[in-house]
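queue> pop job 88
queue> type: inverse folding (structure -> sequence)
queue> payload:
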């Protein structure tokens, strides 16, 4: 404070310095300042990738900090210097109380919030003879409003208006945006009305940002009330603001629509009997955007506010608010198409990685749970959104359930074919072909899912995730060697429980698993600790070995005759199975644990079917493993 007051600067320099500190919160930033990235150098802008993943990194950082112990507070000893205490008592009581309140505010304030001890406030107090212009008031009001000091912003605004300063429109807009943060404000609507009254008295014409920020305060006020098990019905007021904007000839933007939808969405909890239908409102908004301005939006646009980037995720949330509705699936697809198929790629409207994940997770869940569709549609969904499926276990499990259901229906039909009861159960040729092709494709997708899990995994955990283990189980129970003739065509190839394409996908996933297991160091190292557990369970290892051996069932002719390509394929499959068994032996904690014996028998079975010789080196090695284990 002394340093700031002792320097002699001209008025222009002081105003520019105040603008800088108000715009950056004295360099500390805030929730909307570069996404609150932990920059040490505020002079350099962040990379786009840093901004995109900043929210996700901030969540992970908060979790890490919450696990650390808090620094113990040093308690002052009771034996203080008596003379210093007596000297302090001689100070003016009002000065002491004021200094105490200011220091408490500074200490209790967050590092990214505005407080009376910040440099901007110090400049404001130290140069009161110069920094009382309209521009200085505007900078202070906007800085306080932006960085969490709403009461201070409104206080400065009233002071400026009393001094007959004509504040510009952006100042009133920021006052409306921070209205929900004012203390003792359970109902934000009177405060918003006060802001519009100030705007009318200043004879300023509102713009689209004015209504966008007013709707933002309605939304945030309701969100804050919901945390206290309360809710305000602001839907009618929000729709009234939209009507007023249109009456004034103001075209709504993405940000205005986003805050409108969020306000109505939050208000639906307080509606009883009557209420606004969110689906109809979203339909009207989508129609307006599709016909009016969507083609004009591009990555190079400078949007009116950061709220514009909230529209896509908000629209998807509102579209999935009532997933049981038949209309919901159409709305979800329309919102999705806005970002992908209509007028090119618009994914830049997703602010960060967390919002993108939420957007696609809601879309995929709705499509999987209520979209029906064939296995081809499920395959396309997975291939287009692999990262989302592996990042969101809920979406992954729903897809896995759908695919396992398709395979289960084929297995029931296959059992009927073996018993000769297919025709009696009303299964015709078309149904049989559909079930077989669907099951084949389902096995292919399951193999891709396992392969992708290995591809994105640098090191396997001590235990496989449950959803990955469940993905392996369909391959564990299927028998590729069993053949059944179709009752509808004698010329057709025999039917099997798993198709050749499905077996190839299974082998590809097993080979990737074997390679990763061979590269593992500590989890697969031999240990004498009885508390250690094997990397994979018996069922998981057996499933992987069977997946590796599935192609051998399709590469054996009469009397075990094989082409060169078939023999090479079988050798690769057997080598992969042996690698998996060796990995299982290394991961056994104690001798006698039945991890690889069943898998070894599967290798012997494949050797029996595929080898024309009496015994091979694979048989020798497998028998040796059985004896050792």
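queue> result:
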């Amino acid at each position: 404070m002394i340093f700031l007051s002792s320097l002699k600067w001209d008025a222009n320099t002081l105003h520019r310095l105040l603008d800088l500190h108000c715009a950056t919160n004295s360099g500390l930033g805030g929730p909307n300042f570069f996404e609150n990235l932990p920059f040490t150098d505020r002079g350099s802008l962040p990379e786009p990738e840093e901004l995109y993943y900043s929210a996700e990194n901030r969540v992970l950082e908060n979790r890490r900090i919450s696990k650390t112990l808090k620094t113990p507070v040093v308690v002052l000893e009771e034996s203080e210097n008596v003379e210093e205490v007596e000297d302090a008592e001689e100070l003016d009581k009002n000065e002491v109380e004021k200094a105490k309140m200011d220091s408490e505010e500074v200490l209790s304030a967050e590092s990214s919030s505005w407080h009376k001890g910040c440099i901007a406030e110090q400049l404001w107090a130290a140069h009161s003879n110069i920094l009382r212009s309209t521009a200085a008031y505007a900078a202070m009001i906007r800085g306080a409003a932006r960085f969490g000091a709403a009461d201070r912003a409104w206080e400065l605004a009233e002071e400026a208006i009393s001094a007959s300063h004509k504040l510009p429109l952006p100042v009133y807009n920021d006052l409306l945006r921070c209205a929900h943060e004012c203390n003792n404000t359970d109902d934000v609507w009177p405060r918003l009305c006060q802001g519009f009254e100030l705007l009318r008295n200043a004879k300023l014409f509102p713009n689209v940002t004015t209504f966008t920020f007013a709707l933002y305060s309605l939304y945030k006020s309701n969100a804050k009330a919901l945390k206290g098990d309360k809710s305000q019905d602001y839907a009618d007021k929000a729709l009234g603001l939209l009507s007023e904007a249109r009456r004034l000839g103001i075209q709504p933007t993405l940000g205005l629509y986003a805050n409108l939808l969020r306000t109505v969405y939050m208000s639906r909890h307080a509606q009883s009997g009557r209420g606004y239908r969110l689906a109809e409102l979203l339909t009207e908004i989508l129609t307006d955007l599709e016909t009016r301005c969507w083609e004009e939006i591009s990555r190079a646009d400078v949007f009116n506010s950061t709220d514009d980037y909230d529209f896509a995720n908000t629209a998807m949330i509102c579209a999935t608010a009532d997933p049981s509705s038949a209309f919901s699936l159409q709305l979800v697809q329309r919102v999705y198409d806005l970002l992908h198929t209509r007028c090119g790629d618009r994914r830049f409207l997703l602010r960060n990685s967390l919002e993108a994940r939420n957007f696609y997770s809601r879309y995929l869940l709705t499509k999987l749970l209520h979209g029906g569709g064939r296995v081809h549609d499920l395959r396309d969904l997975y291939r287009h959104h692999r990262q989302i499926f592996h990042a969101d276990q809920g979406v992954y499990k729903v897809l896995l359930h759908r695919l396992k259901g398709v395979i289960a229906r084929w297995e029931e039909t296959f059992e009927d074919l073996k018993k000769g009861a297919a025709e009696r159960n009303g299964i015709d040729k078309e149904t049989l072909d559909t079930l077989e092709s669907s099951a084949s494709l389902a096995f292919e997708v399951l193999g891709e899912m396992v392969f992708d899990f290995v591809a994105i995994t640098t090191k396997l955990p001590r235990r496989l995730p449950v959803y990955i283990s469940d993905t392996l189980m369909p391959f564990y129970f299927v028998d590729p060697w069993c053949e059944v003739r179709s009752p509808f065509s004698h010329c057709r190839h025999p039917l099997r429980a798993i198709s050749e394409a499905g077996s190839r996908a299974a082998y590809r996933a097993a080979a990737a698993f074997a390679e990763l297991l061979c590269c593992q160091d500590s989890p697969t190292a031999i240990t004498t600790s009885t508390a250690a557990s094997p990397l994979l369970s018996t069922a998981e290892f057996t499933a992987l070995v069977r997946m590796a051996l599935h192609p051998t069932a399709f590469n054996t002719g009469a009397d075990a005759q094989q082409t060169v390509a078939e023999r090479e394929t079988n050798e690769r499959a057997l080598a992969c199975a042996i690698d998996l068994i060796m990995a299982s032996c290394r991961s056994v904690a104690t001798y006698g644990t039945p991890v690889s014996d069943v898998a070894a028998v599967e290798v012997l079975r494949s050797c029996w079917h595929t080898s024309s010789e009496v015994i091979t080196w694979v048989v020798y090695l497998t028998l040796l493993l059985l004896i050792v284990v």
